[in-house]
From TrEMBL, chain A:
Cofactor binding note of this UniProt entry: Binds 1 [4Fe-4S] cluster. Binds 1 [3Fe-4S] cluster.
Enzyme Commission numbers on file: 1.3.5.1
Keywords per UniProt: 2Fe-2S, 3Fe-4S, 4Fe-4S, Iron, Iron-sulfur, Metal-binding, Oxidoreductase, Tricarboxylic acid cycle
GO MF assignments: 2 iron, 2 sulfur cluster binding; 3 iron, 4 sulfur cluster binding; 4 iron, 4 sulfur cluster binding; electron transfer activity; metal ion binding; succinate dehydrogenase (quinone) activity
A biological process term (GO) from this entry: tricarboxylic acid cycle
Taxonomy, superkingdom: Bacteria
Pfam family, one: Fer4_8
Keyword Repeat tagged: no
Species whose genome carries this gene: Ruicaihuangia caeni
Known cofactor(s): [4Fe-4S] cluster; [3Fe-4S] cluster; [2Fe-2S] cluster
Protein name per its UniProtKB record: Fumarate reductase iron-sulfur subunit
């Protein structure tokens, strides 16, 4: 046939060999965590989570990490990537310098269980203590009305996915595990400044503790770590100010 | 599948375990790579603690005047040595940074724009600190070394 179209060559997508150095720990064998390196073939659009999958599925099935949604929503896979807390599922290979090895380790300040998995219980315990639920005595016929401006007041802190990237980036939390930590304060902020809620003063009291907001030294590590872009230090400052004024 | 002996299994596990590499010198994990906020806090604490220890010693040496004026004079006299003169530069550097950055922290906590501009304020602190030290250090060292 004359009008046979020559098949266009399929463009090959460039791939790279990326070295990951992962801080591994198996409580049944290791006395101390150890760094292990892996070379994986990756595309620029891949994420660190893809690299971890590749290692787990093709190289060493014992590599242990948490992930669920793989799309930055469930908050399971916060880890320290090149010395900063990030979600593995939101960290693209192309945004890292792959001429150097990439260091991956568990988040800091929470008990290490295995490889990249830590015990999140102390984190959630602080979260529960700030009473993260709406408290209102009225029982309206329909919905509880709120103006756009009132909703806007706490919009930023509604975005939290409880990944613990902020709390485990905080130097105060590393040395004082009793500190409530940024995530608990962010979630308290979400209700303290909600016009429908009536327990703001209860939460302000809880956070006025010596392990509460006054532990914050404004290092901004939390703000820089938050994968949701929440202005964490700003939220903490607003809670401090509400405490000093004695009202919201 | 043929049964494997326990030793064979243990052997296989040992082989499957990926080999260690030289750790990057930090079994406890890498250093957290924070930005201006974290390093200004580190400096603030280091200078704060340093100033505290200086003040502690300074209260003690001043209290010597109650022991005897001679003892007081002998100890205070050592402040005029060049080594102490350099130490004073370090002390002033620490106090000036701590004081300026302390004002920055107060603004971060209590000024509405504080958290947005904390990096700019940090670099402002550094520039002011450098200017003040440039003014102070030459005069002070001229004093120290001309005696
Ligand atoms: C010159 C005036 C001073 C100012 C404006 C100032 C300001 C401040 C501020 C605002 C903080 C709180 C830091 C934070 O919340 O992270 C602080 C902490 C501190 N200051 Fe000062 N300060 C001054 C003098 C001193 C002196 C004379 C000493 C030593 C006796 C000192 C030792 C400390 C220490 C040890 C801390 C704790 C640091 C930390 O918790 O990270 N400061 N200073
Ligand atoms: S505030 Fe951000 S970093 Fe902290 S737990 Fe929530 S989503 Fe994660
Ligand atoms: S896997 Fe759900 S947030 Fe990354």
């Amino acid at each position: 046939m004359a009008d046979h179209v020559a098949e266009a060559p399929v463009p090959t997508i460039e791939s790279f060999t990326v070295t990951l150095i992962i801080r591994r720990f198996d409580p049944e064998v290791d006395e101390e965590p150890r760094w292990v390196d892996y070379d994986v073939e990756m595309y620029a659009t891949d994420r660190i989570l893809d690299a971890l999958h590749k290692i787990k599925w093709e190289v060493d099935g014992s590599l242990t990490f948490r992930r669920s949604c793989a799309h930055g929503i469930c908050g399971s896979d916060a880890m320290r990537i090149n010395g900063r807390n990030r979600l593995a599922c939101k960290t693209l290979i192309k945004d890292l310098d792959i001429s150097q090895p990439i260091y991956v380790e568990a988040i800091k300040g929470l008990p290490l269980e295995k490889d990249l998995v830590v015990d999140m219980e102390p984190f959630f315990e602080s979260y529960r203590q700030i009473q993260p639920f709406l408290q209102a005595s009225s029982k309206p016929e329909k919905e509880r009305i709120q103006s756009v401006a009132e909703r806007e007041r706490f919009d930023d802190t509604t975005k939290c996915i409880l990944c613990a990237a902020c709390t485990s980036s905080c130097p105060v939390f590393w040395t004082d595990g009793q500190y409530f930590g940024p995530a608990a304060i962010v979630n308290a902020h979400r209700f303290i400044f909600d016009s429908r809620d009536e327990a703001a003063n209860v939460r302000l009291d809880i956070l006025n503790d010596k392990e509460g907001v006054w532990r914050c030294r404004t290092t901004f590590n939390c703000t820089e770590a938050c994968p949701r872009g929440i202005q964490v230090t700003q939220a903490i400052a607003e809670v401090k100010q509400a405490m000093i004024r004695g009202k919201v | 599948m043929p049964e494997k002996s326990a030793e064979a299994l243990a052997d296989e596990f040992a082989r499957r375990r990926t080999p260690d590499i030289d750790p990057p010198g930090r079994p406890a994990g890498t250093l957290y790579r924070g930005h201006e906020g974290m390093w200004s806090w580190v400096l603030h604490r280091v200078t704060g603690v340093a100033i505290f220890f200086f003040l502690l010693v300074h209260v003690l040496d001043t209290a010597l005047v109650r022991v005897s004026p001679e003892a007081y004079n002998a100890v205070i006299g050592t402040y005029q040595t060049p080594i102490m003169g350099l130490g004073e530069v370090a002390l002033v550097a620490a106090i000036v940074f701590h004081a300026l950055n302390g004002l920055r922290i107060i603004l971060v906590d209590f000024w509405a724009g504080g958290t947005r501009h904390h990096k700019l304020m940090f670099w402002t602190v550094i520039v002011l600190w450098a200017l003040l030290m440039l003014g102070f250090t030459p005069r002070h060292l001229m004093n120290v070394f001309s005696h």
